[in-house]
Amino acid sequence: MMQSFRIPGAGRLTPAKTMRFTFDGQSFTGVAGDTLASALLANGVHLVGRSFKYHRPRGILSVGAEEPNALVDIERDAARKTPNVRATVQELYDGLAATSQNRWPSLSFDAGAVNDLASPLFSAGFYYKTFMWPKAAWKSFYEPKIRAAAGLGVAPDQPDPDHYSARFAHCEVLVLGGGAAGIAAALAAAETGVRVILCDEQAEFGGALRFEAGAKIDGADGWAWAQTAIAKLSAMDNVRLLPRTTAFGYYAQNFVGLAERLTDHLASPDANAPRERLWQIRAKRVILAAGAIERHMVFADNDRPGVMLASAARAYLNHYGVAIGRNVGVYTANDSAYAAAIDLKKAGVDIAAIVDLRDNPSGPLVEEARALGIEINHGRAVIRTGGRLRISSMSVQPKNGGGERKIAVDALLMSAGWTPSVHLFSQSRGKVAFDEETKRFLPGIYAQDCISVGACNGTDGLAASVEEAYAAGAKAAKDAGGKAAKAAKPKVEASENWSRGMLGAAPGAGPDKIVKAFVDFQNDVTAKDIRLAVHEGMRSIEHVKRFTTNGMATDQGKTSNMHGLAIAADTLDKNIPEVGLTTFRAPYTPVTFGAIVGHARGALFDPTRKTAMHGWAEAHGAVFEDVGQWKRTWYFPKPGEDMHAAVNRECRTVRQSAGLFDASTLGKIEVVGPDAATFMELLYTNPWQKLDAGRCRYGVMLREDGFIYDDGVVGRLAPDRFHVTTTTGGAARVMNHMEDYLQTEFPHLNVWLTSISEQWAVIAVQGPKSRDIIAPLVKGIDLSDEAMPHMSVREGRICGVPTRLFRMSFTGDRGFEVNVPADYGQAVWEALWTEGQKHGACAYGTEAMHVLRAEKGYIIVGQDTDGTVTPADAGLDWAIGKKKTDFVGIRGLTRPDLVAAGRKQLVGLRTNDPKIVLDEGAQIVADPKQAIPMKMIGHVTSSYWSENCGRSIALGLLTDGRARMGETLHVPMPDRTIEVEVTGPVFFDEKGERLNG
Amino acid sequence: MLLIHCPYCEEERPELEFRHAGEAHIARPTDMAAMSDEDFEKFFFIRSNPKGVIYERWRHVHGCARFFNAVRDTVTDKFVMTYKAGEPQPKKLPGAGK
Ligand SMILES: [Zn+2]
To answer: CA B54, CA B25: separation in Å to the nearest integer?
Structure first.
């Protein structure tokens, strides 16, 4: 098809630069610089989609970001499918493939359009009322049906192959919006030498100058002036221009989020180029130059393809050289539509008639239209349109009733006036104020260092806007530290002046009429729906909005909010400010997840921490588990072994010979200074003053409320030096906890805290052969039981490198923890591994570690405790220094509930059938025959198969557990109830003889 | 994202570098063990949660690592001022009337 609606000589595009594209599989051509919308219109295509609820045929309403109708699916390849792309924003590229949405089987015949006929069923609040009954039908019937029918486009089903970039930037003056006002503000600010950033959502700067043919600035046509000014700004080192960039969110302290589209307009983007870039800009001053958005007229069947905003038709003509029809009607309550009619008429398009709701429109534009021979019907309304897939007629009637006249048209322009874009101002927490005279919300009280200029500030006329913007730019720059501006102020020599307009429903959509007069095109909300919401009892606009969904689509009500508000106010017989304006929220236009996520995907989503021995474990077939950010070795399966077999072998080998375990992830903190012991006394329940240097102690840390916060073995290296270990997961918060007390509660103590978690690699060598394995490699330390008993620490050398050697055990067998500087971790591990091989030792992972400690009843904080467990509950009251007068948690421990009877206590649980392994988290009851809900008296915290015990073992927290030894209790599961016997928590080597075995 | 002035680093840094640490000026008694249940409840559980000016603790955790105090408005989120830990609660706030 030829571009039969492209008018030779009109617009700014170069006709020779043609591009091919497809829409619903049909091939078309467009021109470089087109949007998908302008290219479709050049080919006479208005029908581009079906509406959300009623599946009504829809065309292109606008020329910009406010578009509610023309949402299409753009597909580059199988993984690059973007739904709900606004055709008015998507720039054309050669080979672009677009498809329409929300229709089946085709756009011209859509089975879903039956909703339109059945529309009485789908009035506002329908979902709330109808689908609530019967309740059972919701899950099986209503919800699946609604979900399938809901939404417009189809989400892509493959991972996004593109990548997205992100930048932080700082500037003195950030100008949001690159129309005449924004450019003038940027010029003034830039001249002072401060850093200026100017952004605009369009590909080219110029804003409304794109269509405002009557503008003349500094002797040039408005658009030409804008391009000259942009060229000048672009040459300045202190200015950054960001076209194709939408300021979508305005946050605290002038922090603004911008999304820059980098490749969506390119035919074949560089595979390495980011698709979008997220800018997070901190500006000393922000200038809001967001312009205004034209409103449609609310009348019956105002949604047929071919019905369009007047300014949009004008932009298609004056910028893209496209006529939106051959016989065009106009319906307006505002002068700006006259300018559109005049431009079209001059370009050779027939104007069937201008229908003006106002009684006596006057002014230069009205006179000019009349002089061009355009028929003007004032004091009249368009009460209906005809046509199916495209408008074919408009029916005109005197606004107070009377004879109806049908006029044939193939397009209809409409304008109810302009709504200042106060979205970003409102997001900045500024308070809008209603201007009674002009019936619009304007920036009122500012909350941040920003200023609105031009149309978004309600400033009418180009000259006044440029004047205001220039002054604001100069002042913002000066306030932010710039020099006085010296550039010449742009001189506006000619501009158009558009007065007023109307809000709410026009006569054709009066309260007595059962018609579809659309207020919100994207969500299919009509004037009737809003009236119904009021009749149903909604009083605030926030309720009306939610009941009708007016303004809740992805266009966020850019064209519909004010009309909806006016209709609600009218129905309530209240003034608009009394009904209220909904709050504007980010994002201003939809932002891709990609832009928000940026590089934080896959491996870069979160840091991965690996120990010094990670490579060895990987090479030896370890399976890893994630513990926080750490990759920990879970188990080391031999060929043919599953997890169960590997863990059983590891557990057996450790107790028979020995095992090597990578304990490097344990948190480690060095507490140093003359007051180190005093500090330790305050932070841990245990006594530390009398612990000899060279000895270790198991420490328990509480919060002030008396509950266990962390635990770990602490070695005293010297009177003024403690090597503290924490749980893997607790490392950072324990450090924070200690720093908090040291800095704010005990600042008089002379102590230094240093995190040494990553400085020391830790190799646990556990089992009866552990001493034999390390002995040949250790120098300068006497390893005999007499010289180095259980729970002691020595400094010396291993394999020639420094070591802090702990004799300690988390298995109950003789054991050592070899600390070496992390860089030597793998080399020392390998040397120990070689020695271990001689004794039949194995490498074991976290699973075997868990089983082995559970066999001994050693708790894991965070698994066997949950933040409500006291030392007494866990059987650790021996670790509390009885003579101490203060430590963190000392008062909490005596709180009434913490000393009351009936607390849950740590116990062992043995299933009567030794083969059954309980589920961790399973609940315990006394009487399995009681009625549901049963009284739950405890739960399982740890549960394993113990190869060494030849049976299952479990730990649990049980009400009055220690008084229930020998009782039989029950663990109800979905398929059966399991009998358990309550025992002590130690299952293996109860006397603890193996520590020296 | 807020900009927060660290009184130790003496410059404004992005909120990402900081961590909130609860209400300020709740001193831990020196005779903890002797506290009544009522006093412990006030000390540990009860917080002011005002609409308006609040005194808070913050930590420049990804910076100098120091804890400090801040005065903030819970309505606007704005920081009124920050000061070092241990300094007295400011009686007169910048920008406030007499
Ligand atoms: Zn700091």
So the answer is: 11
Round to whole Å and give the CA distance between A422 and A443.
Answer: 7
Q: B26 in contact with A at a CB cutoff of 8 Å?
A: no
The one-letter amino acid code at A718 reads A
pTM of the model: 0.88
| Residue extents of the structural domains in chain A | 18-117, 124-148, 165-292+420-494, 634-853, 857-996
Tokens at A925, concatenated:
């009851």
The rounded percent of chain A whose pLDDT value lies above 70 is: 96
* Residues recorded for chain B: 98
C-beta atoms of A886 and B85 within 8 A: no
Q: How far is A422 from chain B (nearest CA, A)?
A: 19
Count: domains in chain B: 1
Distance B5 CA to ligand 1 centre (A): 8
Regions of chain A where pLDDT drops below 70: 1, 118-152, 485, 487, 498-499
CATH T-level topology, domain A18-117? Ubiquitin-like (UB roll) (3.10.20)
Whether residue B97 lies inside any domain: the answer is no
Residue pair A714/A680 in contact (Cβ under 8 Å)? The answer is: yes
Question: Are B56 and B49 in contact, with CB atoms under 8 Å apart?
Answer: no
B93 falls within a domain: no
> Rounded to whole angstroms, how far apart are CA atoms A685 and A207?
69
DSSP state, residue A504 = S
CATH of the structural domain A165-292+420-494, one choice from 1.10.357.10, 3.30.1330.30, 3.50.50.60, 3.40.50.300: 3.50.50.60
> For residue A231, what is the enclosing H or E element?
helix A222-234
Give the ipTM.
0.97
Residue B70 lies in a domain: yes
The total number of residues written for chain A in this structure: 997
Of the candidates B28, B32, B65, the beta carbon closest to that of A739 is on B65
Report in angstroms the alpha-carbon separations of A16 from A12, A323, A938.
12, 18, 80
Question: What pLDDT digit, counting tens, does each position of A611-655 carry?
Answer: 999 999 999 999 999 999 999 999 999 999 999 999 999 999 999
Task: Give the three-class secondary structure for A666.
Answer: coil
CATH class of this structure's domain A857-996: alpha beta
Q: What is the Cα B53 distance to its own chain's centre?
A: 11
Q: What CATH number does the domain containing B16 carry? A: 3.30.2270.10
Structure tokens at A820: 């070496």
- Predicted local confidence at residue B98, as pLDDT: 41
Q: Do domains A634-853 and A857-996 have the same CATH topology?
A: yes
d(Cα A417, Cα A790) in Å, to the nearest integer? Answer: 86
Residues A364, A387: contact at Cβ < 8 Å? no
Closest CA to A34 of A20, A52, A50, A48: A20
Peptide bond before A587: cis, by omega within 30 degrees of 0?
Answer: yes
Q: Flag if A744 and B85 touch (Cβ within 8 Å).
A: yes
DSSP string for A689-732? TTPPTTBEEEEEEE-TTS-EEEEEEEEEEETTEEEEEE-TTTHH
